[in-house]
Amino acid sequence: MKQLLFCLVLLCPFFTFAQSNNSPSSYDPHEIAITGYLQTQYQRAQSEGISSFSGGDFSKNSKDRFMIRRGRLKIDRADKYSSIVFQIDATQNGVALMDAFIQLHQPDSKALLFTAGLFNRPFGHSIVYSSGYRDFPERARVFQTLMPRERDLGAMITFRPDNKMFHFLTAELAVINGSGYSARDYDSKKDIVGNLGFKFDSLANKKLHVGFGASFYKGSVRNDTENYYSHTATGFVKNTSPDNVGMNAKRNYLGGNLQLQYDNTFGSTLFKVEYVGGTQPGVASSSSISGPLASQSFATQPATDLYLRQFSGYYLWLSQRIAKSRFTALLAYDSYDPNTDVKDNEIGVLNSNTTAGDIKFNTLGYGMTCQINGRMKLTVYNEHVVNDHTLLPGYIDDLKDDVFTMRLQYRW
Question: Which distant-in-sequence residues (6+ apart) come within 8 Å of 287 by Cβ?
């Protein structure tokens, strides 16, 4: 029995595409259920004090550290009409609320779900996929920038037909604040997020599994000054008017994703790709806002002039379980271009109004995981981060910001 349980846990990331955070541990009626996971890790950066999307920035005089990356404790309950989920994250930075939502459904069907509270935005694949099951240490830079910590406050409707003929379909539509998981909404506008997903299991004699989908995000960011900067072919132009105070700048995204898994004699091969593009209001980088954070979504009212940028980003993830062993090889590549209207050699040109917030970053990641037993997993991973060369001081050459991670995870 123990061997069977170990095999199921070992194979779990390969035979399922949807380890969703927006659900209880089980919809079967139960009293209090407690689940969670702990990720403790050692990291070494290429240089001290770097800005990093691998667990956060390094301290000014440090290039290596021990840290608790995630310490999740999830409590849920379900009955025939409803379920409730409450999850916290406890790390060296303190205790934070991660999930707190109620779900309602018909007693004899889960085809239609109504969710209200704090939950993952229903956008794409990687946002709602649990970090406790993901092979790769972190989500791609583009999603950490657009949707920090993944959650938001609002209400959502989910539809997945009970009919086996259409059970491959999942449709989700949510109305949210847009300011993220840890902040009160700073304006009266609400954002709309939608996702349409398809999943086909057990194709090609049960060896092939396919999932794909498309998502949209339609929102806005309030401008609090008389100025904003709109993009041109070579930079930004300043727009000034008293009417610009209170203007709502568009925050619109479109995304698509694909997951392919093939079970073969070499083990199991899992390939995931996801793309997102659109309009992202940001600010200029400054002494208090580092370049990569200048295009990050806001939790509070931005105090400086808005910069309206067209962006694009994607990731490619490849996981290869090595035969029937405990080991899985990892290879990843992701790219985030916060301003697709300018080229690298145009950033920093005099009077272009471009800043470090317009620089494109690409990341190559590679590593290995070892499923020690049914609950513990060891991950060894290295990220090689490359930024475009620009005319800006400090970004003329590639930054020395690679990161090595060794992580031990325990899940219960």
Answer: none
Write down the pLDDT at residue 17: 36
Structure tokens at 139: 């989500």
d(CA 358, CA 396): 13
CA 116 to chain centre: 21
How many other C-beta atoms are found inside a 10 Å radius of the C-beta of residue 57? 15
Write down the pLDDT at residue 8: 37
| Sequence-distant (≥ 6) Cβ neighbours of residue 193 within 8 angstroms | 121, 122, 123, 172, 173, 174, 176, 215, 216, 217, 218
Q: List Cβ neighbours of 136 (8 Å cut-off, separation of 6 or more).
A: 317, 330, 332, 365, 381
**In the chain, how long is the greatest CA-to-CA distance?**
71
Q: What is the pLDDT of residues 49-94, one digit of tens each?
A: 999 999 999 999 999 999 999 999 999 999 999 999 999 999 999 9
- Compute the distance between CA of residue 130 and CA of residue 392 in angstroms, rounded to an integer: 38
- Angle at the Cα of 287 from the Cα atoms of 290 and 300, rounded to 5 degrees: 65
Task: Give Rg (Cα) of the chain.
Answer: 22
List, in order, residues 6 or more apart from 164 with CB less than 8 Å away.
none
Residues 315-334 have pLDDT tens digits of 999 999 999 999 999 999 99
Q: What is the DSSP string of 347-409?
A: TT-TTS---GGG--EEEEEEEEEEE-SSSEEEEEEEEEEEE---SSTT-SS-----EEEEEEE
Map out the domains of the chain with their CATH numbers: 2-411 (2.40.160.10)
Answer left, alpha or beta for residue 144, where phi above 0 means left and psi between -120 and 50 means alpha: alpha
Nearest to residue 339, comparing CAs of 143, 140, 142, 127? Answer: 142
Contact indicator for 289, 302 with CB cutoff of 8 Å: no
Q: How far apart are CA 280 and CA 77, in angstroms?
A: 38
